[in-house]
Amino acid sequence: MIPSRPAAPGVAGVVVVGASAAGVSAAVGLRDAGFTGPLTVVGAEPHPPYDRPAVSKGLLTDLEPAPPPTLPAVDAVDARWLLGRSATALDLASRTVRLDDGTTLPYDGLVLATGAEAAPARAGLAALRSGVRTDRPSTCGVPALPSAPTGTAGPTVPAPTVPAVRTLRTWEDAAALRQVLDAGATRVVVVGGGFVGTEVAAACRRRGAEVTLVDRGESLLARRCGPLVGEVLAALHREHGVRLALRTEVAALRPAPGSTRDRGATEVVLADGRTLLADVVVAGLGARPATGWLAGSGLDVGDGVRCDETCLAAPGVVAAGDLCRWPSRTFGRELRVEHWTNAVEQGEYAGRRLHAALTGAPAPPPYDPVPSFWTEQFGCLVQVLGRPEPGDEVRVVAGDPRVRRFVAVHGRAGVVRAVVGIDWPARLRRLRPLVATAAPWSVAVVGAA
Amino acid sequence: MRVIVDYDLCDSHGECMTVAPEVFEVRDDDLLYVLDETPPGTLRPKVVAAARRCPKLAITLAEE
């Protein structure tokens, strides 16, 4: 465990880098713990922390495009907000953070909460990687965007135009997608059957668009929620008219015949040879922790910022949320959790932890949550407590997947590692202790039924 | 303080129950019951934490 630095808070105070759920929660945790010094929260987005889960759900169908709903915690916490600014470097030796506007912020305590960024289009779209953009056109249809000129000698020949692929992380991303849908885009291809992909597919379908969802797996969300949930979701999507292209991936994108430089459809060529026509292509290919700005800082940033079991990354530095990798006692391994409830819970914990470090107080007990996440699609509530993995033993302990109401337990190496359920929140929550205590599998499946 | 739940938003996720079981209970009918709408001050930290944890932001507190 990294020893905490015993010292009274100085004039510099605490800087929180990252102004979403984890950042504001850390601010709350700090103040609740008794911190009265200066507190500055820096965020790259122009908005105060908002309800990010709504980005792939309600915003596409119900919520007004602007402004995003600010989290109540923002008004409850005494802090200075520097929004629309990105941190570009961290200097642990001088305890300073540099921002993109040239400002240098000194700190006594630092919270790292910059979250994650939507993964760029990758191998399946490799041929177009350099040309794939995430611009936000205002007209219906996919714009033909010229990529940079190629070649080093002779006349410049423009490269073939390449359609834009959208990702979805921010309120602006969702507002732009919604604008395109409102303007009449009817053919939507979604790449990736994870949380964002399935939620976007469901929301677009609810709006009456023709939707095709492409994924390399055999069903939807199976990697994160298990095969039972995966099969139910796949059936649900099909019943609601989402076309599923499973066990395949996108091999190429190109402007459809008849497209012009400025507007037109996109041909999405799949690895299995089929071709789809799209007015808009959305990629939900996962997220990467936003550690780029920490390169060279000296912190261990392979797959998130590495922390000890109290979320401490270095003396006087804690991390929380999508960005944080820490050893879980319950799971006996490092975790990095990209979900809302963890951002809130870990943010609060990290704030308390940092306060202890600043005052020389004993650290709180290790951070050892039961990860919790959910998704809602076509009126179905899917919940997961714990950490399912492919290859788990899975046993239904209540209900029946065929009627889309059930609870199942996941086991790994003889221990319960997750409880998953559809439309049965009470039953699911009653089994939470099985995960929290890493209950033996054999005992659990007998007792849980 | 008074605990207010917006039942149009509440989907009975039950995170509140995990944080503050003295105040929130999702029963076998899958509905959320607020066990005490005006909990004692000692429960304030838990109730406030429950409101922050709610996935639907369905819980608010009115100061009275």
What brief labels describe this structure?
heterodimer, A: 449 residues, alpha/beta, six-stranded mixed beta sheet, five-stranded antiparallel beta sheet, 11 helices, 22% helix, disordered N terminus, B: 64 residues, alpha+beta, two-stranded antiparallel ribbon, globular
Percent of sequence in beta strands of chain B: 15-25%
Share of helix of chain B, binned:
10-25%
Choose one word for the global shape of chain A: globular
Roughly what is the average pLDDT of chain A, rounded to an integer? 87
Q: Could you tell me the radius of gyration of chain B in angstroms?
A: 10 Å
Number of helices of chain A: 11
Number of strands of chain B: 4
Question: What would you report as the Rg of chain A, rounded to the nearest angstrom?
Answer: 23 Å
Secondary-structure blueprint of this entry?
The complex is a heterodimer of chains A (449) and B (64).
Chain A: E1 14-17, H1 21-32, E2 39-43, H2 58-61, H3 73-76, E3 80-83, E4 87-91, E5 96-99, E6 104-106, E7 109-112, E8 116-118, E9 144-145, E10 162-163, H4 171-182, E11 187-191, H5 195-206, E12 210-214, H6 222-225, H7 227-239, E13 243-245, E14 250-255, E15 266-270, E16 275-278, E17 280-283, E18 287-289, E19 305-306, E20 312-314, E21 317-319, E22 324-328, E23 333-335, H8 340-359, E24 372-377, E25 380-386, E26 393-400, E27 405-412, E28 415-422, H9 425-430, H10 432-436, H11 441-448
Chain B: E1 2-5, H1 15-19, E2 24-26, E3 32-34, H2 44-53, E4 59-62
Antiparallel strand pairs in B: 1-4, 2-3
